[in-house]
Amino acid sequence: MAHLRDPEKGCSWDLKQDFNSLIPYTIEEAYEVVDAIERNDLDDLCSELGDLLLQVVFHSQIAQEQNLFDFEQVAETITKKLINRHPHVFADVTYESAQAQQKAWDELKEQERKEKNKDSNNESVLSGVAINLPALIHCEKVQNKAANHGFDWPQTAPVFDKVLEELEEVKEAWNNNDQAHIQEEIGDLLLVTVNLARHLNVNPELALKQATQKFTRRFHYIEEQVSASSRQLKDCDLAELDAYWDEAKIKLKNPK
Fold first, then answer.
1. Does the predicted model carry a pTM greater than 0.85?
2. How many domains does the chain have?
3. CATH code of 44's domain
4. Which residue of 50, 58, 74, 153 is most buried, as measured by CB atoms within 10 A?
5. CA distance 48 to 31
């Protein structure tokens, strides 16, 4: 990478890059790692991990050129963090349960955050959550942070009630034909649905991804049936498409 960014002999594209320009590539490579894992393509996983590592090397090289830090410091930082967060492995600490271990982990992260922001006036417990995360992940992390500091329903049942309450408020906004209010209430409904997922120990990002994949499989089935009749989707009425959808639900049902 140092050779690629050599001002005289390097690659013009690599030389043009900076931290900001690499953001989309870093995100893309992380998602391609996830894709390889979900497809259980381990050869591709090896390749995609290399692509992701390239992004770490790329950012580190840019930082080194600016006398900020280098790759060795990146590796050293995560090593120190892992040792600090695992006293039950690297020291003589013993936890009574998995819950106690998780609580200690969160407390250690919180202490790290305070040390990092000791010269800042921002002392919010939510300040450690990256704002550029995908919306569902960001929402879940914010709620987890708040819950760890006591701001959460102690039981699951009231969360169901809150979901129904927010759904009614969406309907009310829709009846009033207030688009801005509709968007606001849809946001509230999504947020409390993420909260329900948390209480039911469901990863909302994964759940939505699986639901979308299920929808895609069923929709492909509809396309296949319509294509077999030498027609296009727009040639069919909704009742027929719904009938194909019901067929797909039966024929493509996950045996699990």
1. no
2. 2
3. 1.10.287.1080
4. 58
5. 9
